[in-house]
Amino acid sequence: MAAATPKGLARRQLLAEAAGALLMQHGHEAVRHRAVAQRAGLPLASTTYYFDSLDELLRAAVEYTCEVDAREMTARCDALPAQSRGARDTAAALAEVFVGDDSASRLTTRYELFVLAARHPELAALIAARRDRMAEVAARVLAKSQRRSAPAGVQSLIAFENGALLESIAAAAEDRKDPIGALTEVITGVVDVLAPALPAAAAVAAGD
Can you give the residue range of the structural domain that contains 199? Predict the structure, then answer.
């Protein structure tokens, strides 16, 4: 198959990246054969040659988007200094890692993926894998902040994060808050319950 050759694989990846970029910037309705081909700088026929259907192209776009999100969150977590943090500083660290400098359109796409997974069951595994990677990153942020990172607490913090960000981006323009600020405000109130600070001795051991 031509798609299995180095050239074919490269073109397929280029199309997937173009589809992912459109998804992140304009939502799933922007992922159309012509728009993807134009974005990739390839002939229109290439989209149907390398992808059997629009659903398969959309799946590639979602997979690419999830990978980019996870990679960027991981990089922000890697750059975070390891130090003991109080509730507000821990909340701010989580917010910075989760949001970074993402635009409103990218944050909107993040939540659009949940709806897509509900309507397209074949995407559910991708969204579940993304959720697991987010949990891993959140647990690392908490560990770096000398906080407990039990799975149940991490999942609850992510649920608060989702609610705060969704409310932030869904607000009217005049009422819209800075996403990082909104997320920090919400998590500050619950972080001591869901991810309490480690005792001094345990905190020292965690840093070894």
Answer: 61-207
Report the CATH number that the domain containing residue 145 is assigned in CATH.
1.10.357
Instruction: Enter the pTM of the model.
Output: 0.82
- How many whole angstroms separate alpha carbon 208 and alpha carbon 200? 13
Residue 69 lies in a domain: yes
Q: Which residues pair with 197 in a beta bridge?
A: 147
B/e letters for 22-49, b = 16+ CB within 10 Å, e = fewer, are bbbeeebebbbbebbbebbebeeebbeb
Question: Which residues lie below 8 Å from residue 32, measured CB to CB, with a gap of 6+?
Answer: 54
The alpha carbon of residue 201 and the mean position of all alpha carbons in its chain are separated, in whole angstroms, by 34
* Helix/strand/coil for 197: strand
Summarised one tens digit per residue, pLDDT across range 49-90 is 999 899 899 999 999 989 988 999 999 999 999 999 999 999
14 domain residue, yes or no: no
- Tell me if 91 sits within 8 A of 184, measured CB to CB: yes
pLDDT of 97 strictly over 50: yes
Q: What is the band of 8 on the pLDDT scale with cuts at 50, 70, 90?
A: confident
Domain membership flag for residue 174: yes
Q: Which residues pair with 191 in a beta bridge?
A: none
Site of tokens 């990978």 = 67
